[in-house]
């Protein structure tokens, strides 16, 4: 398995408009727009930062994963996304190493990337996302 880079930080926010004030006005970042990912019940605003990105995640439904996260933990970094060269290969390798996967097969995330989540109980408490573009 080859990890290319830290692709993005996924940040759970209660209100996208309010959250974006910091990223846009204080840090001076420019978003490349907001996207709705229906399958994950989330709106995503992406702020490119050099080779990486900040992704602000706002829930579109009370039973979505971001709504549940906000209920338990409040706003903040929800996951770290790592770009890999080949996601299927990475998932097979992790499975062989006994890592608990949330997604055994990739699904489609923001920007059409193939993504899969690794369970925090195998990573020391960090929700890790693998992505391939
Ligand atoms: Zn992500």
Q: Could you describe the 3D structure shown?
A:
The chain is of the alpha+beta class and 133 residues long. It has one domain: 2,3-Dihydroxybiphenyl 1,2-Dioxygenase, domain 1. The protein contains three helices and eight strands. The chain has helices at residues 16-26, 65-73, 87-96; strands at residues 3-13, 34-37, 42-49, 52-59, 76-84, 107-108, 114-118, 128-132. Strands 2-3-4-1-5-8-7-6 form an eight-stranded mixed β-sheet. Strand 2 (34-37) and strand 3 (42-49) form a beta hairpin. The longest helix is centred in the N-terminal third of the chain and has 11 residues, at 16-26. The relative contact order is 0.20. The mean pLDDT is 95. Residues 8, 10, 55, 79, 81, 129 line the site of zinc ion.
**What structural category characterises the helix and strand content?**
alpha+beta
What is the CATH topology assignment? Answer: 2,3-Dihydroxybiphenyl 1,2-Dioxygenase, domain 1
With strands numbered from the N-terminus, the spatial order across the biggest sheet is: 2-3-4-1-5-8-7-6
Compressed to H and E, one letter per element, the order equals: EHEEEHEHEEE
CATH class: Alpha Beta
Mean pLDDT: 95
Global shape: globular
Share of residues in strands: 35-45%
Number of strands: 8
**Biggest beta-sheet profile:** 8 strands, mixed
């Amino acid at each position: 398995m080859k990890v290319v880079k830290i692709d993005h930080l996924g940040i759970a926010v209660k209100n996208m408009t309010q959250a974006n004030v910091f990223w846009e006005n204080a840090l001076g970042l420019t978003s490349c727009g907001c996207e709705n990912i229906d399958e994950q019940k989330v709106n995503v605003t992406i702020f490119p930062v050099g080779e990486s990105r900040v992704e602000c995640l706002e829930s579109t439904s009370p039973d979505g994963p971001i709504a549940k996260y906000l209920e338990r933990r409040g706003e903040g970094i929800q996951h770290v996304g790592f770009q890999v060269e080949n996601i299927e290969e990475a998932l097979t390798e992790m499975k062989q190493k006994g890592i608990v996967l949330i997604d055994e097969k990739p699904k489609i995330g923001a920007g059409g990337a193939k993504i899969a989540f690794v369970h925090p109980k195998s990573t020391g408490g960090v929700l890790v996302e693998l992505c391939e573009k």
